[in-house]
Amino acid sequence: MTVTGTITEDTAAPRKLRVVMAQLDFLVGDIPGNTDLIIQATREAAERHQADIVLFPELCLTGYPPEDLLLRPSLDLRVQEALERLQQANLAPAMIIGAPLRAAGLLYNAAVVIEAGEIRGRYFKRCPPNYQVFDEKRYFAEGSQTLVVDIKGVPVGITVCEDLWKDGPLEDAAAAGAQLVLNLNASPYDIDKQARRKALLERKATENRVSIVYVNLVGGQDELVFDGGSMVYDHSGTLKVEIPQFTNGLFPVDFLCEHHCQPVSQPLPPEPSLEANVYNALVTGVRDYVNKNGFKSVVLGLSGGIDSAVTLAVAADALGKERVRAVMMPFRYTSSASLEDAEAQARAMGVQYDVFSIEPMYDTFMATLAKPFEGTRPDTTEENLQARLRGVLLMSLSNKFGSLVLTTGNKSEMAVGYSTLYGDMAGGFDVLKDVPKTLVFRLAWYRNSLAPVIPERVITRPPSAELAPDQKDEDSLPGYDILDQILHFYVERDYSAEAIVAEGFDRADVERVLRLVDINEYKRRQAPIGVRITERGFGKDRRYPITNGWKLGF
């Protein structure tokens, strides 16, 4: 165990310490730009908030997760140049940043303490995670030492993200005399994550009799969304400060440090509803994916159904109506209700709206295919052709105008393969990829509670792909209230078929749904990425072989 700095004895008068939580959005790979942001934020924290410490998120220097950028030969040089710039800035507050650092030939996920132009301490993350979306053991060695550094006369312990979730690192910092523990995080959002964080922080603060400052990253990175939600707990396990989720900025908190570092309470934000939180996550994910990748605008197919309606609402809220184009592509099976509702929503939201019939193109294709299809009956081939023609139209608009195509499939459909390769799956980003259909309905009602932009008929009438006469989704699938429960047990909790049947579901439904999930892995591998909002989405979380002989059962 290593203790850095001088631990000063308590005196009669409590010491005052101001920590500024930098809940900010960093761009993965942009080390110079991220360095600029750290310097700018530290200066602002000093000038506006008189900060003693500015605490940044995990790996803020590279952004998170940097993935195989960590294997680039120039990584060490770029990080060293950034650290030198941070030292040369010679800023008054102590900056605590996250960066990859190499020592004795090994790479570590590190926290670096820089004060008055000097590096006062380095801490190497002791518990790199390797589960769900985390793959840190591919890159990082495990640290083994504890860091407690004296800042303004206060013994401050440093830990990084997963270190808090395991026993050892925080306990060692408290045993080494830390009165305050600062925890740098890049913790991605899922529906229940903030509640789990709070339970953990309450327990750790209480057991170790130390105050904890938990600072988290905010913003979107590919399929991951980071929600911030930075917090401060006192040594009795009481939540004293909480920063609203999905909020970018600098947030000061004062401590009075004597035998303990007691944070000064601040009003806590209201608890957001599940629908509000998920909606904010989707907006954040779309906004950052589009902006960070340099797209000028987005385009999507607006069908008059609920999935495209919610996708349009999210896109317009994320980017502004001027950057969104909605396209209705009717066919002979498209109902008048769909045409009317799509136009009504597009007008209500003020986005560019076009109507391009796919019927002439469909007839041309079918004329070309008449000879090879001779003697066969219409089936899903003709239905899929409709979806693929729509995909061609949207991709053509994308190529011509530099717009990103947003696809509109939800998690329930992606799970069972209720989608068309190179058709409605054609595009660059799927907003609802991890949103079950039942939650899509709830999001529609939530968005309308803010301002009624989605026609009520879109939400209330039975869902249909409208690829055949009088078609309904539930003609070929169990009801979504049943389907989503089965999928939750199988996809997110890894229940077997027998275990799901034991939960009270019909065996035929269970076996049918699970078989559809298994045989459609090949489709999901070719699907665009989308915002992850559950504990286990289709992407980095779930890695099943396409070719396999695993049988349903126990």
UniProtKB/TrEMBL annotation:
Deamido-NAD(+) binds at residues 384, 413, 523. Keywords: ATP-binding, Glutamine amidotransferase, Ligase, NAD, Nucleotide-binding, Transferase. Gene3D superfamilies: Carbon-nitrogen hydrolase (3.60.110.10), HUPs (3.40.50.620). GO terms for cellular component: cytoplasm. It comes from Marinobacter excellens LAMA 842. Its EC number is 6.3.5.1. In the C-terminal section; belongs to the NAD synthetase family. GO terms for biological process: NAD+ biosynthetic process. Pathway: Cofactor biosynthesis; NAD(+) biosynthesis; NAD(+) from deamido-NAD(+) (L-Gln route): step 1/1. The keyword Hydrolase does not apply. L-glutamine binds at residues 131, 187, 193. The active site is at 58 (proton acceptor), 125 (for glutaminase activity), 161 (nucleophile). This is Glutamine-dependent NAD(+) synthetase. The gene is nadE.
